[in-house]
Protein 1
Amino acid sequence: MSKHYGRTEPRLWTKPLRELTPDTSLGFEVIDYARQILHIELYPWQQWLLIHALELLEDGITYRYRRIIVLVGRQNGKTLVASVLASWWLHVDSQRHPDRVPPLRFKIVGTAQNLDIAREPWNSVKLWCDPQPETIEEQAAAIPTLQAATAKVSDTNGKEYIKSRALAVYEIRAAKNARGKPAARVIMDELREQKDWAAWNALSPTMKSFWNGQLWG
């Protein structure tokens, strides 16, 4: 067995309100989704993050955190976490509470200081679920279950989005173009590279009209 290096637990973090189990955190569900659907075994720190970030309040349905800020070194798997999370949001979480947020209104927005950075997790989600892959290699990487759950993928520059058959949408924008319609979930990649508060001020209020919204940065 290979030896693990590093620490699973971060230096600074918020303690949970109670023991974290599959009943008190949806992080366990995301880990199972990664393992069973995406065939990805997440690193211990990634699993720890998901379990703690997706902690539920005592009602068993509401996320404890509306904003999650993550700081880890480069090349440690941040993009993979964002990709897995976005895929799970799009295909699973978007349909969890249709009485409160119907899939039609469930929008995921990915942004960064430039579109290329925001596109990285989006490309992974696209690769897994694109119902019309363009190459043999893309077809081999696609996951039939997710392809069947995807209605459309748009690659048009500046208008990239993935729409599920349930009508939830995952789109990406450059930070300067982030202001827009309300979003249920937001990923702000490379947050520390932002030079001012413009992107944060544009995106952080977009969840106010959404029950149980989350922003990851």
Protein 2
Amino acid sequence: MPDSETNRRELLKLGALGGISAAVFGAGLGGCASGGRRLGPVRRVPLVAPKLDRVRIGFVGVGGMGTHHVSTLLRIEGVEIRAICDIREAHAQRAAKLVQAAGQPPPTLYTRGERDFERLCETEELDLVFTATPWEWHVPVCLVAMRNGKHAATEVPAAVTLEECWQLVETAEKFDKHCVMMENCCYDRPELMVLHMVRRGAFGEPMHAEVGYQHDLRGVKFSTEGEGLWRRAHATKRNGNLYPTHGLGPAAMAMDVNRGDRFDYLVSMAGNSRGLQLWQQERLARDDPRRSEKYVLSDVNLTLIRTVRGRTIYLVHDTNLPRPYARFNLFQGTRAIYVGYPERFYLEGRSPEHAWEPLEKFAEEFEHPLWKSEAIKQASGGHGGMDFLEDYRLIHCLRNGLPTDLNVYDAAAWSCISELTERSVASRSRAMDVPDFTRGRWQTSPPWGVVEA
């Protein structure tokens, strides 16, 4: 192993133990965008895998979101769900009933504990392993899947740490497998319309985005079921943007990140932590053991990202304060601007001076083909249809031997923002370089086109 690689791994280990400052880490990697990683096996970017007549799937983690994906996938032609894994047998049985109700044979169940996904990956003849487990299990499941010859798909975020991001990239390259992070917001109607307008030149040159995740999750985090069993724990030990991809993903695609541009560096700032403490003290019984928990996650995290080509992104994470749901969403170019919640546009030379116009005025001209397709008519529920489209497009690409819309480099570049914001916050908002997970191949990778169903 090269000395630079050994040193980098040792720095990461020390950093994880708190024995080295984030400032030193930032300086140590600042001069090398790849973070000292070796170049993996040469392969075509984006990856093109052989066509699959049918996609045989093993599903790991069938709680709320996992069950939703199972239900959605069963409505897509060419999908066979062969195996289900969950630490709760009742959850696995519930998902199995959905599979059988769809007319498919009973899937094999794997319920022998939290690592039974390894047995699934080793013994089942599958094309794809899909995980919707708690965050810390996303990478272990994907790695075992790819090492056993399966493509991998994961709910967001793909990884928690920078090292995990590199593990995904290196393993996908070594075994020549797709590793896709399922970012549903990339398929929402306004985001796809903005992308279509960018591709048609309506925005001019993309310049700036303001995006984020603004969702009051206090009730979810303190629930005694589902995400409440694990998500709140992250707030006791991490302080940064823990959930960056919903807002960041669509902006990155419209800015051609990893496909002609890439993230260069970021700075991040965190304020006080109050929301979870207030909920804890005001709503939990006096004898509830959760009242003794201490939280370090700030109520609001603000991050600025600059790309190599000079585009800027303002990224917000806000999940611990009272508020209606929103995904802070602004995209700006040299000729137009879009703002979400509510959706409105201003196109220079077309819109009235200094006046917003509703999305529907531009829908006939710029509606994305996916939202005009026969496929979208199959959608029901699922965040207005974007959940169906993300699953549909994954299966479509696998069955037709096409590059997946999102790839392992996107999964890594978008997910690594979490640890980098934590390190920036811990070092008084010091700038942190974002690694180039493509190792230079972003310069020749084609942009995501206006795909159709």
Protein 3
Amino acid sequence: MKFEEFKIGQTFKSYICIDKNDFNKYLSFAKTKNILHENPELALKEGIKSNMLLPGRAIIARAEGEMTRLDIFSNCVMLLYGMDGDPTWDNRNTRFIGEVDAGEELEVEYTISDKKGEENYEKYGILSIDFKIKRLRDNKTVIISRRNLYRIKK
């Protein structure tokens, strides 16, 4: 789609699953060092019930990747422009509000929350896209991410 065709309030869905292999690749790539992800016994002692707790940023990265694979975005010239805070949400961008284990299936809902032309760039516009990620097993929202800004070619 072209920038002009996107409508505020439009929603799109995708489904993701980050398995143990994906989890290990992410830890290796991101160089993340967090004993709660590496030591299941300690995580349990700290009240985390998971034996393979996924980092929230890994889930966001995968959700963004899946978004770019949706038909509606697949032919877009699109770049991440920023992750601004939402002024109606005390300028927060993302909240990780539930645990996700490796291998869990998730539903991602993407919503176009704003769009505007970009100053000094006639060929591009800015889409603001919100993510809401839910665990399918209990339908619990685990991540909310607002005002992810993408430059889209007009």
Protein 4
Amino acid sequence: MPQQYPEEFKKIVEQLAELKNTSELMMDLAYSSILLNSTELAEEVQRLEEYVDKLHTDFELRVLTSKFTNEEAKGLLGLIRLGVAAEKIADSAAQISEVILRGLEPHPVLKLIIKEADETITQVRVTKKSKLANKTLREAQIPEETGMWVLAIRRGEKCIRPKPETIIEPGDILIASGYAEGVEDLKKLASP
């Protein structure tokens, strides 16, 4: 991309990454809301969908109002299309979570798919006495200890997509996926 606009291009790429990451989180949370029958997670998906709608609009406006040459702008078409795809994924996640919010039973095929899957999703609350409390996700080594991967952390009213440097706080609810054998290990770590 153009050398004379590195900051502008960097912001476009950052917004696209945020769109992608948020839509991935939404899909994880939408399936989790069905598996755990959680209206809280389903509501979080709906909240994030509104956020993605605004972020997507801001992203497209930034691309459209940037001062790239015609030749440089051609390279941005792919980014716009990726943004549209991320927004469609977010919309799909919102539709999935509506099953829980409407009080409907998931389709029997969906229940069977979830039941037959090798991986499972669980949520655990971190207590004050937990070995995980006040450690970063990296320090906690949850995947190494349990085979489970933390998809999201519910902290109060917010649901966050954790990074390796995210500190796990007492009271956090970890939403994790992995093989069923790791669920009990994760529960023991979170709530000894």
